[in-house]
Structure formats: structure tokens, C-alpha cells
Amino acid sequence: MDSDNPTSWWLATIGRTVVWARLRVREAGTAEVFDSDGNTLAYDSEDSARAALMDAEFVAYEGLDDDDAQQRGFALDELQPPQGDDDALRGLMIQKLPQRH
């Protein structure tokens, strides 16, 4: 991760499936979202990128607590954001969590 460009992870859930998105703020103040399809979407600001993610029912991973996770059907310790370069991330942006017994 480039420390000059703040990065945050966002997620949406569909049952036990977690869909990730990575928000990265660029030096010029613009932002980009790397989505679950492996596309990089450009935005004019961090605020507009965040608004687009929230409109798509994504929430910031770092803002989740145990109660938020429970409401979405998982425990916080069940997941962490994917890691790797963009090529490696393409296959990791959608995670299926094991079914609970």
C-alpha cells in the first residue's frame, strides 16, 4: 500500500457473502474505488466516492464493531480485507464465509 495515498476498505454483505471495495484517495484530492469486478472507478473527491459506496449499501470496514458485524450476519474475527496488488485482489474481492452451525 502506498502510504502517501490513504486507503480504506469497505464491504457489503449478501447473506454469508462479503463484497469488498477499496477506496484510495489520490494526492490531488481525487479518489478511486477498486470494485469487486476488478474495475477502478474514478471520483472527483473522497466525499463523492464515499457517497457512491454508501448508496450501494457498503460500510467502512474500520468503522464496524461487533454489533454491526452481527447485524450483517458475521463476526468481526471472521474476515479481514484482502491483500495484494490489484491483479491478486481481483480474485479476492468476493468472499464466501462458511455457514454457521
TrEMBL record:
Origin: domain of life: Bacteria
Protein name according to UniProt? Uncharacterized protein
Q: What organism does this protein naturally occur in?
A: Montanilutibacter psychrotolerans
